[in-house]
Structures are given as structure tokens and as C-alpha cells.
Design brief:
alpha/beta, 5-stranded mixed beta sheet, 5 helices, ATP binding, CF(1), ATP synthase gamma chain
Length: 290
């Protein structure tokens, strides 16, 4: 009887886990759809900004704006790691950690300063013993634009002052529901790497109206903020997608475990019932003989 009770407890526990993971799956799915729409909606706009920044950084006098200049060789590399506020999103954080470690090994930890966005990012950097100069939290809802200016102002200030030679973001890029790619993207200096699908600007003169300086200043004021905001949106969409898939897999595994436990429970229960019937039969036979 003790084995029967143990199976009942295990089945009950598995059912409770399945209910919990299913509820978390539905919550993540509801957040995921909106997050995916927001991330996908801003991609074309940000790609346009990247193309324009490439043009400006290559064809304008760097003296027009500090962000058009190359970073100071004496400055450190700033790595901004964007990760979820909480776990239960499959291998998302692990993949980000692997991407980060490769970047650190290539640069050298002594030449890097870290900015963390999200609690998991903070934990990852502290595990590798990195120097954290600033920490930001996003909360559990969709990223708000109000979070972006402090991050942009900090990295812009350090780049202007020569304390940073390069600013790199490492985050999870949203591709689709089943695919989230750990990505390394350089925001400063303004020399974006073009994809194969893009055409680099022709090497010719460009005319700016009203003037190059008047075009550059307002553009660069918004460039960093818009691209950082898109990165946060991508990371959030990737997080919700990964969590929805992870919770679905957990629910399926719990259901499979319930089925296996129920089968074993029925076998043990049937063997006990059979043994009891045999005992009753033997007892009846002994009474009849008496």
C-alpha cells in the first residue's frame, strides 16, 4: 500500500507542475505576440538609421560631432549585456553567456567595462568577475522608452570623454518563435557592418540641406536611443518566445510523466488487488474444508 500512496503523491505533484507550467505558457504566449509585433515593426526603421549612420560616419568631417570620431585607443571597451529579469526561458541565458565569454576572450577582461540590463545579466557578469560600471532593470513588462535615455547618455558620455574606445551590445535577437540568436552589435564608433543583403553607399559626394551640421546633430541625438530601444524590444520578444517554448516543453514532459506514473500505478494497484483476491479465495477454501 505504501508504494500505491507514493505513486499517488508523484502523480499529484506532476499534475500540479503541469498546471503551473501551462499557466506560465499561456502568460508568455499572450506577451509574446505583442512583443513580436513591436520588435518586427521597428526593424526596418532601425535598419534605415544604421544605413544613414554609415553614410554620415564615412562621408562627413568627424569634427562635426564627437560621435562621428573613432574611439580613443586608450579607452576601454564597454560591453552592454541585455538579459531577462527572470529565468525559466530555456537555454536563452546560457547562449548569451557563451556569446559573452567568446567576446571577453577576444578582447581581454582587463580592457572591458560592463553595463548590465536585467537581473540575469548582472548575475552572469558577476560570475565571470567583470567590472560593472552601471546596472539597469527593465521590470517584467514590455520595455519602456524611459529606460533608454540613461543608458544612451552614459555610453555617449564615456565615448565623448575618451573613456570608451568601443561600445558593444550583446543580446538575444528575435528571429522567430523557435529561434532566438545571441547577437553582438557594435553601436559606437559609427561604423556598422553591412549584411550581404545591403548595398554600401557609393563613394561620391552628398548634399545636405540645410547643412551637414544641422542634419547630424538631431540625428545623432536620437540614433543611439532608437537603436538601444530596438535592442531591448528584440531581447524582450526573444525572452517571451523562449519562455513560451520552454514552458510548453515542460508541460508536455509533465504530461508524459503523468502517463508513465499512471501506468505504473495501475500495475501496482492491480497486483495488490489480485493478491487480495487470492488471499480471500484461499481463506474461503480453508473455511469450506473446515
Amino acid at each position: 500500500m505504501s508504494s500505491v500512496r507514493q505513486f499517488r503523491k508523484k502523480i499529484k505533484s506532476a499534475k500540479n507542475i503541469a498546471k503551473l507550467t501551462r499557466a506560465m505558457q499561456f502568460v508568455a504566449a499572450s506577451k509574446m505576440k505583442k512583443a513580436q509585433e513591436q520588435a518586427a515593426g521597428g526593424k526596418d526603421y532601425v535598419n534605415g538609421l544604421i544605413s544613414l549612420s554609415y553614410l554620415l560616419s564615412n562621408y562627413l568631417d568627424p569634427k562635426l560631432h564627437p560621435l562621428l570620431q573613432s574611439g580613443s585607443e586608450e579607452g576601454k571597451v564597454i560591453i552592454v549585456l541585455v538579459a531577462p529579469e527572470k529565468g525559466l526561458c530555456g537555454s536563452l541565458v546560457t547562449n548569451l553567456s557563451k556569446k559573452l565569454i567568446l567576446a571577453v576572450e577576444a578582447i581581454g577582461k582587463q580592457r572591458i567595462e560592463f553595463i548590465t540590463v536585467g537581473k540575469k545579466a548582472n548575475q552572469v557578469i558577476r560570475r565571470i568577475g567583470g567590472e560593472i560600471i552601471a546596472e539597469f532593470t527593465l521590470g517584467l513588462s514590455s520595455p519602456k522608452y524611459e529606460t533608454v535615455p540613461p543608458i544612451a547618455n552614459l555610453i555617449e558620455e564615456r565615448f565623448r570623454d575618451g573613456l570608451a574606445s568601443r561600445v558593444v551590445f550583446i543580446f538575444s535577437e528575435f528571429v522567430n518563435t523557435l529561434n532566438q540568436v545571441p547577437t553582438e552589435r557594435t553601436l559606437l564608433p559609427l561604423k556598422p557592418t553591412y549584411d550581404d543583403t545591403r548595398e554600401e553607399p557609393n563613394n561620391k559626394d552628398y548634399l545636405f540641406e540645410p547643412s551637414a551640421k544641422e542634419v547630424v546633430e538631431p540625428f545623432l541625438e536620437m540614433y543611439l536611443e532608437v537603436e538601444i530601444y530596438q535592442i531591448l524590444q528584440e531581447s524582450y520578444a526573444a525572452e517571451q518566445s523562449a519562455r513560451m517554448v520552454a514552458m510548453k516543453n515542460a508541460t508536455d514532459n509533465a504530461q508524459s510523466l503523468i502517463g508513465d506514473l499512471s501506468l505504473e500505478y495501475n500495475k501496482v494497484r492491480q497486483s495488490i488487488i489480485t493478491a487480495e483476491i487470492l488471499d480471500i479465495g484461499n481463506a474461503v477454501g480453508m473455511l469450506s474444508n473446515a
